[in-house]
Amino acid sequence: MDKLATNEEIEQGLKQLPEWQVRKMDGMQRLIRQFKFNNFKQALNFTNQVGDLAEQNNHHPLIITEWGKVTVEWWSHQAGGITSADLQMAAQTDQLAA
Amino acid sequence: MDKLATNEEIEQGLKQLPEWQVRKMDGMQRLIRQFKFNNFKQALNFTNQVGDLAEQNNHHPLIITEWGKVTVEWWSHQAGGITSADLQMAAQTDQLAA
């Protein structure tokens, strides 16, 4: 099981992830970013790309799909918050959208 | 633009939709149901089925995809809450999961 990232590690990681925010929900910190699209179909396509990334890494985010936007939330439930793996997954999610 | 369903119409509709709840968020009522699955892949497959249904009807829900569960939320933003179309979409979503 991964260890929680320290606050310093998270702050350092966020320098490479300027679009991501840290929010605490249900007592655990999460990395959250919203991606915008022109319609529902494009949003759902991105959801599937993030889903493929998740399956490849056996680490799964929460994904909110709506008309024109997708919100991705990465955290590690077992660790109780954000781990270095979550920071890496956020970076890979950015690459999908690039 | 569809009219909002009356409270009576919503109550009547919910009799056929026992798994759905009405919740008010951002000042608008929504129909919400959570569907459970055995893993992430099955959850994402269901998200795509709901997405196809949405595209066919040109009416789009909010879909939250997580490991082992999908939450679907139907409402009509322009009408400002739940319309008869939303009640129909909820029923069709149930059929996808049946």
Keywords:
alpha+beta, homodimer, 98 residues, 4-stranded antiparallel β-sheet
Topology:
The structure is a homodimer of 98-residue chains.
Chain A: H1 7-15, E1 21-25, E2 28-36, H2 40-57, E3 62-66, E4 69-74, H3 84-97
Helix pairs in contact in A: 2-3
Spatial order of strands in the largest sheet of chain A: 1-2-4-3
Proportion of residues in extended strands of chain A: 25-35%
Order of helices and strands of chain A: HEEHEEH
What is the CA-atom radius of gyration of chain A, in angstroms?
A: 13 Å
Q: What's the rounded overall pLDDT mean of chain A?
A: 96
What would your notes on this structure say?
The structure is a homodimer of 98-residue chains. With 98 residues, chain A is of the alpha+beta class. Chain A has helices at residues 7-15, 40-57, 84-97; strands spanning 21-25, 28-36, 62-66, 69-74. In chain A, strands 1-2-4-3 form a 4-stranded antiparallel sheet. In chain A, a hairpin with a 2-residue loop joins strand 3 and strand 4. The longest helix of chain A has 18 residues, at 40-57. The N and C termini of chain A lie far apart (30 Å). The interface between A and B is medium-sized, with 15 and 15 residues.
